[in-house]
Amino acid sequence: MKMLTAFAQPVDDAQQTFRILLSAMAEPLQPRALPVLPPALPGLKASTAAMLYTLADQEVRVWLPALPDETISSLRFHTGMRMTDLPEQADFIVIAAGMPLPDLMSLKAGSAEYPDRSATLLIEVASFAEDQVEGSGPGFAMPRRFGAAGLPSGFWAEWQRNHARFPLGVDAMLISDTHIAGLPRSARIREG
């Protein structure tokens, strides 16, 4: 099995990507261009691979959809991440394009003492638009219109249930081919 390439400059590229990720979470639902993309991996967008190369390490558990062995081996080699077969145990949950959404209420939501010990969803989408929902809350100077083509069915209704548990709950990063948009659990969503 051949090893697939990751970031060309692993430290610099991951740092640049992390800065964009922080900015995306600080200003929710505001798509941000990723500064650098690694080569695509079979079964995953290059942008999703960039998120995993940036966030995953030997300390976290990741749940992945069924992917080719070479993709999983490459991710494990370059990040040291641990895999889990149960989304409920994962720190990061990858939802590839076209996959159904797991039950958000069953995922790690943190605790009153440690709300940061929750899961983050990495959800692949086709593109971003401004036509599905209005977001408000921390990080919004004013309400913002947002949409994402290719979200799992029923996503926004599930997200409203997730937000109702705040400060507990999960966070999400929506990932297109070249951009990401942060969706922290604190974001209030109104459909329509």
Automatic annotation (TrEMBL):
SUPFAM superfamilies: PhnH-like. Coiled coil: none annotated. It comes from the Bacteria. The keyword Lyase applies. It holds the Pfam family PhnH. InterPro entries: PhnH-like_sp, Phosphonate_metab_PhnH. This is Phosphonate C-P lyase system protein PhnH. The lineage of its organism: Bacteria, Pseudomonadati, Pseudomonadota, Betaproteobacteria, Neisseriales.
